[in-house]
Each structure stands twice: as structure tokens, then as C-alpha cells.
Amino acid sequence: MSTNQPSHEPRGCDGALATAFGFLGKRWNGILLATLMDGPMGYSYLRRAVGSISDSVLSDRLGELGKAGLVLRTVDEGPPISVQYSLTPSGQALLPSLQALTDWASKNL
């Protein structure tokens, strides 16, 4: 039996895209990055802005985002001592994509 459909190689997901969604899809990572879009924030303010995230998870996620080079932790020795979190240039490079995803979600989900 013959078919007129052309044969295609099976398409795989782009490795970089899979890595990005694996990282940004981890609970809270994308939300934290989007929350920092408007500028640096202290830990307490960031926790309040995000909502129901626990202190331990927030600390873990900020550490992951820092290790990935997306968030910078800056300590001001004060007094009083304060810690600010901000997006690095790599984190800022995600902003157009996060905004486009936010726009798409508000229209389609």
C-alpha cells in the first residue's frame, strides 16, 4: 500500500529550549525573574511580592538563579546591613521573552 505523504525525520526538541523550559519551568524561577523586572529588591520585599513562597524555597531559588548567572546578590554592609537582589545582564536578556509569555498567557489561558 502506497502513501503520498513524504517521509520526514522525527523532529526532536531543541536542546537549548528544553534546558530553558526545564530551568524556567521549575516552580518560582520564572516568577522571581519576572518580579525583579522592575528593579532590585530586598529579600523581604521579594518574598511579599511573590506571595506564598516559603523562606527556604525562596533562598534555594535565589541561589539557583545566582549560580545560573541570572540574579546578582549585593550586600550593603550598612549599618544596617541590607541585601538586594537584581537581574544580571543575562537575566535582563530574558525580559522580552518573559513579557511575551505573559502577554500570550493573559490572552490565551
Note down, in words, how this protein is organized:
With 109 residues, the chain is α+β, with helices and mostly antiparallel strands. It is 52% helix and 13% strand. The protein contains 6 helices and 3 strands. The protein has helices at 15-24, 29-35, 43-50, 55-67, 89-93, 95-108; strands at residues 41-42, 71-76, 82-87. Strands 1-3-2 form a 3-stranded antiparallel beta sheet. Strand 2 (71-76) and strand 3 form a beta hairpin. The longest helix is centred in the last third of the chain and has 14 residues, at 95-108. The chain is elongated. The model has no long low-confidence stretch (mean pLDDT 87).
Summarize the structure.
This protein has helices spanning about 15-25, 30-35, 45-50, 55-65, 90-95, 95-109; strands spanning about 40, 70-75, 80-85. The protein has about 110 residues and is an alpha+beta fold.
Q: Helices, strands, pairings?
A:
Layout: H1 15-24, H2 29-35, E1 41-42, H3 43-50, H4 55-67, E2 71-76, E3 82-87, H5 89-93, H6 95-108
Antiparallel strand pairs: 1-3, 2-3
